Amino acid sequence: MTVEAQVLPTPIGPLALLAREGVVVAAGFTADPQEMFVRLPPALRALDLVVTDDLGPSARAVRDYLDGDLKALDSVEVTQPGTPKRQRLLDALRQVPPGVTVSYAELAERAGLPRTAARAAGGACAQNLIAPFVPCHRVLPSTGGFGGYYYGVPVKRWLLTHEGALLP
């Protein structure tokens, strides 16, 4: 059993994709799949990491997204660890359409967790292992600006511009 990885070129730098049995378990803007691999849960880190030339549908979805099919990433199966509350937040995040931005509080509300502090939504974004498939770049602080992004604000800005979002 292995975790397969592929690094794809993008206009904003390399994107490492990691999948197990065709399901994306990590994705991030780095040229080194090992950077994503060490963030996986222990059960997956116990497997071998094997770099491949083509992860198939997930790699094709990234290329389609970059070519303008902004919904291409939506159909790719993903999985990542987290509590039931975090899973609800990540599921709600995946439902935010391309070109749309939400605040952390709005994300919590969309997840059916209106009493959840924006901090919990921020935590879910910060721990997200599968950017841009789980589009934490679409969450902006209600106070304005871009807020943080694990891969840097320039990457977040590029993704939002690519999707046609109104920028702060």
From TrEMBL:
GO MF term set? methylated-DNA-[protein]-cysteine S-methyltransferase activity
CDD domains in the record: ATase
Q: Could you confirm whether the keyword Ribosomal protein appears in this record?
A: no
Tell me where on the tree of life, at the top rank, the source sits: Bacteria
Q: What is its EC number?
A: 2.1.1.63
The broad enzyme category this protein falls into is transferase
GO terms, biological process: methylation
- Gene3D superfamilies assigned: Winged helix-like DNA-binding domain superfamily/Winged helix DNA-binding domain
Q: Where are the transmembrane segments?
A: none
**One Pfam match:** DNA_binding_1
* Chain coiled-coil ranges: none
Keywords, A to Z? Answer: DNA damage, DNA repair, Methyltransferase, Transferase
Domain Methylated-DNA-[protein]-cysteine S-methyltransferase DNA binding span(s) in chain numbering: 86-165
The catalysed reaction is: a 6-O-methyl-2'-deoxyguanosine in DNA + L-cysteinyl-[protein] = S-methyl-L-cysteinyl-[protein] + a 2'-deoxyguanosine in DNA; a 4-O-methyl-thymidine in DNA + L-cysteinyl-[protein] = a thymidine in DNA + S-methyl-L-cysteinyl-[protein]
Q: Entry's InterPro entries?
A: MethylDNA_cys_MeTrfase_AS, MethylDNA_cys_MeTrfase_DNA-bd, MethylDNA_cys_MeTrfase_DNAb, WH-like_DNA-bd_sf
NCBIfam families tied to this protein:
ogt
Q: PANTHER family annotated for this entry?
A: METHYLATED-DNA--PROTEIN-CYSTEINE METHYLTRANSFERASE (PTHR10815:SF13)
Q: What is this protein called?
A: Methylated-DNA--[protein]-cysteine S-methyltransferase
